[in-house]
Amino acid sequence: MDRVRGCLLVSASAEALARAAAAEGAADALRIPQEPPQALRFGPATAQLLVIADHLTRRRGTVDEAELAAELVAEWSRDRGRGYGPVSAEAFARIDAGVPWQVVAQQRHRAAGDDCDEPAARVAPVGLVQGVGLTAVAGRARRTAAVTHAHPLAADAAAVIAVAVAIAARTSQARSLCPDDVLAALAPHARSAEFRSVLQRLTVLVRRGAEPAEVAAAGNSDGPVVLPAVAVALAAFLNHPDDASEALRFAIAGVGGSMPCAAMAGALCGALQGEQALAVQWGLRLSAASRLLTTAGALSALATQDFD
C-alpha cells in the first residue's frame, strides 16, 4: 500500500508544485521548497489519474474505453476550473455533447497544438496493479490513452510510463535500480521507431549525467512535445531515484515548468520510494489529500489480488 500511496501523493504534489512554480515565473521555476508557502492544488493530470485509479478498482484492473471516456468527462464537468488546457476542455465538451469519443480522439490527432503528454501524466495507476505482466500493463495503458488521444506517440508515452511505474513499484530499493536495465525493459513497449530512438539516446545521456536541457533537446522533433516530456521525466527519475525534490527540479528545468512532466517524474519516485518520497510539508499542504488516500487504499486492495 505504501508504494501506491507514495505514487499518487508524490505525483499530485509534483504537478501542484510545477503549477505553482509556473505561476511564480521563470525566475522561481527551480525553487522547489520542502515547505511550500501556500496550499498545493493539483491540476488536470491528477484529476484524471484519480478517475483511472477508481476505474481500475471498480473493473478489477481492466479498462473499458467507453466507460472511462464517460468518467473522464464527468470529472471535467464537475471541476472545470482544475486547469484543463483548451484542447482538452474542447475534447471533453464535445464528448459531453454526444460526439463519440473515437471521433473526438481522431480529430484531436489531426489538430495542431495538442502535445499528447496528458495520457502519460495520468496513467500511473495502471502500473500499480500487481499480478499483471508488463505487456498487459502496456496494453491497458494504451487503452486509457485511446479514449482521448489517437496519436501513436501518445499511446507509446502512456505505455512506457505505465511500465516504468510498474518496474519502480516492483523494485526493492533505489540502489538496486539500474538505469540501463530500466530503459532496455521499456523499449519493447514503444511501437514507434521515433520513440525507441529517444529511449536509446536517453540511455547514453543518463549514463553520463546530462543536464535537463540536453535531455529535452534529445527528445525534440517536429511532432508533439510528448517525447521531450517523457525523456526528461525518465531521466529525472533515473538520475534521482531516491530524491523526489531533485527529480522534480530536473523535470521542471527540462521542459519549462511542464506539469505533466513533473507528474510523471513524481509518480515514478513515489512508486519506488513509497510515502517516504513525500516531503512532510508537501503532504500537509496538498489539497484533497484525503481523496488521494482513499483512492490509493482501494487500489492497494485490488493490487493484492491475483489476475489472469
Q: What count of domains describes the coordinates?
A: 1
Ranges where pLDDT stays below 50 over 5 or more residues in a row are: none
Task: Specify the overall morphology.
Answer: globular
- Structural class by sheet pairing and helices: mainly alpha
Rg from Cα: 17 Å
Q: Write down the CATH class.
A: Mainly Alpha
Distance between the termini: 21 Å
Number of helices: 17
Strand content: under 5%
Helix content: 55-70%
State the main characteristics:
0% strand, globular, mainly alpha, 308 residues, ADP-ribosylglycohydrolase fold
Topology (elements, then pairings):
Elements: H1 2-24, H2 44-58, H3 65-78, H4 86-96, H5 101-110, H6 118-122, H7 124-128, H8 134-146, H9 152-169, H10 179-186, H11 193-207, H12 212-219, H13 226-239, H14 244-254, H15 259-273, H16 280-285, H17 289-303
Helix pairs in contact: 1-2, 1-15, 1-17, 2-3, 2-17, 3-4, 4-5, 8-9, 9-13, 9-15, 10-11, 11-12, 11-13, 12-13, 12-14, 13-14, 13-15, 14-15
